[in-house]
Structure prediction request, 175 residues.
Amino acid sequence: MSKEFIETLITKEMIDEKIDKLAKILNEEYKEKRPVFIVILKGAFIFAANLLTKLTMDLRVDFMVLSSYLGERNSSGKVRIEEDISIDIDDEDVVVIEDIIDTGLTYKTLKKKLLANSPRSLKLVTLLDKRSKRNVDENPDFTCFVIDDLFVVGYGLDYKQRYRNLPYIAVLKEE
Ligand code: 5GP
Prediction:
């Protein structure tokens, strides 16, 4: 296998600035509400941690572990729910926090499952959006960055469980 190397695509400063803006929007939109934030693991853990600490409304947080890529660069085309939420979301305002929306299949599957539990509202926040790759009709309500069709790592996103600790988003290339 050829050697991998990374190239910065989005700096930590750019991410911090976007998260501040997004937090302001969410603080305004949900100020009279008590939303439930659902963090999609593993990839969204750093984004979610930084966003959630800037939110000021009375909120609850739950987690879901999903897998679709199975550690490879290409989607397996199947989404597996490895671990489900434990909060009852019936009649709640729900906000899903995702790392990246690629084909949209993961969110489509997730949305169907969450809507079956009758939330009052359901919105999606994502750090990254590969809009050109979308092949289902699902779009995020709040996006920090729209990116080209590149395989990215860092800020929670991995390649075979590596690179999650990078404080920025990088493109993974092969020499
Ligand atoms: P989708 O179902 O929208 O095609 O894929 C969403 C999931 O695929 C994301 O939650 C993420 O786990 C993974 N994914 C998609 N694109 C990338 C990428 O460029 N890098 C990494 N590390 N994961 C990705």
The mean pLDDT is 92.
